[in-house]
Amino acid sequence: MADFPDNGRKMTKDNGIPMATRRTSVHGEWSSRFAFILAATGSAVGLGNIWRFPYLTGENGGGAFVLVYMLCVLGIGVPIMMAEIMLGRRGRQSPINTMRTLAQEEGRSPSWQYLGWMGMTAGFLILSFYSVVAGWTLAYVFRTASGVFTGATADGVQSIFSSLIADPERLLAWHTFFMVMTTMVVSRGVKSGLEQAVRFLMPALFLLLLLMVGYAMNTGAYDQAIDYLFKPDFSKVTGQVVLSAMGQAFFSLSLGMGAIMIYGSYLSHTASITRMTFIIALMDTSVALLAGLAIFPLVFAYGLQPQGGPGLIFMTLPIAFGQMPGGAVFGSAFFLLLVFAAWTSSISLMEPIVTWLVENKRMTRVKASTLAGGAIWLFGIGSLLSFNLWSEYKLFNKTFFDLTDYVTSNVMLPLGGLLIAVFAVWRMSAESSRSELGLSDGFGYRVWRFLVRYLAPVAIILVLIQVTGILAWVTGRS
To answer: Could you give the CA distance from residue 325 to residue 323 in angstroms, rounded to a whole number?
Structure first.
């Protein structure tokens, strides 16, 4: 197994405190802090922000959910993201090699490398079905632009969606196209591929989102949407709402899958991890809130239900697009926005796998990206067949797609975040974390350490208990 802990390392000092060995990544470095912010925000911003956040808001009482979500981002998401970026920058390698090297450096068990393996595996599995859903968004760009939803009824929209997912050949074509898009970007490396892509995609994403919010302001229901999102009804805050908000905050920041860790490995050692993390979290949350401001005015203006669930995007909004003036243009722009969001996330999901292949198998980036992309594409066929030819085949009463989604999102990612927190403050020395974060032993560092040491692990364990059904089992037994 290849090992890169000595690559380009040097001793430096920060505020008079001797710092741990500095390493340089063999894969390159972001050209600027702004490039890192765009890339990490692109990793965090995905279908979870624009697809998942609005329907969870609708299902959990609107403003009450939004408020709890924002508190969870601040109290749990930000501290864990700081820890993951810190580990990535300190190790400067793929997540697997980073955790193995840092564990050795701190005198801990080499078994910590399996945290890297779990994150990389989660990214592989998530991208395999993420690409299938991203393929739906690609298909909807062209369907909406062609005017297929114009004047369509709810049954008509349902029929269009059902015909799409029932056709394995069409799903395979869109799945293949999206994976080729992702592989091409990753194969070009950090500066020529990842950085160039996010420099275009992220500003385009924000521009499209702002244009759609501007359009939504003229629907006549914008004030109603504002009240729904930002005037919390505290009577609707239940334990389920808190747990849902906590889970969404964690997942929306793209934590626990190695993506943020590998992006952190390309960050200059002079950049402030604290400042970078708060900016990324702010931008990520802004996208989610803007998505709500773009979607809910349409929902209310056309008499639709905000509790539309996962079908809010693909089966509820197209009804509004079909009724509104210029709906074909507006709708196709909306689904193009979803494509951009999915693309930036998928790039970050593949990157940890590619870096490991380059480091450990001595492959070129092109060969590593092609191999990784091909393997993910092949595994993803199981997910796309779950909607048609394999829909009757279930394990634990879940299709291939549902089971993959459930295991990764509800078990692997929270567990990865929990282990990141444990290593960062229970296994890594305070001197090491302070020097990498660039913080003195003052109030700011102590708050971060408390949140990662106690609050975040307890919150994540509660999420794990809830999503794995342990809580329901205990309640049923009592």
So the answer is: 7
CA dihedral 372, 414, 314, 62 (to 10 degrees): -160
- How far apart are alpha carbons 157 and 319 in whole angstroms? 7
Closest among 26, 33, 40 to 267, alpha carbons compared: 33
> How many angstroms separate the CA atoms of 341 and 345, rounded?
6
Q: Which residue type sits at 413?
A: L
- Give the DSSP H/E element, type plus range, for residue 162: helix 154-165
Tens digit of each residue's pLDDT (9 = 90 or more) over 135-157: 999 999 999 999 999 988 888 98
d(CA 436, CA 193): 27
Q: How far is CA 78 from the centre of its chain?
A: 14
Question: Do 400 and 385 touch, CB atoms closer than 8 A?
Answer: yes
Query: pTM of the entire structure?
Result: 0.89
Find out whether 437 and 445 touch, Cβ atoms under 8 Å.
yes
Domains of the chain with bracketed CATH: 34-477 (1.10.4160)
Distance (Å, rounded) from C-alpha 414 to C-alpha 170? 34
DSSP 413-462: HHHHHHHHHHIIIIIS-HHHHHHHHT--SSHHHHHHHHIIIIIHHHHHHH
Residues 216, 297 contacting (CB under 8 angstroms): yes
Go through the chain and tell me how many residues it has. 478
What pLDDT score was predicted for residue 17? 35
Q: Looking at residue 174, what is its pLDDT?
A: 97
Question: What's the rounded Cα separation, in Å, for the pair 122 and 116?
Answer: 10
Q: CB atoms < 10 A from the CB of 226, how many? A: 16
DSSP states along 258-275? SHHHHHHTTS-TTS-HHH
- In this prediction, residue 115 has a pLDDT band, given cuts at 50, 70 and 90, of very high
| Contact yes or no for 84/460 (Cβ under 8 A) | no
* Tokens representing residue 246 in the block: 């906590």
- Greatest CA separation found in the chain? 69
Q: Locate tokens 């400067």: which residue? A: 92
Dihedral pair phi/psi, residue 277, rounded to 5°: -65, -45
Q: Tokens 């190790």: give the residue.
A: 91
CA-CA distance, 346 to 43, in Å (whole number)?
8
CB-count exposure of residue 194 (10 Å: 0-12, 13-18, 19+): buried
Say how many CA atoms lie within 13 Å of 406 toward its Cβ: 13
Comparing CA positions, the residue from 282, 240, 217, 233 lying closest to residue 78 is 282
- pLDDT at 295 exceeding the cut of 60: yes
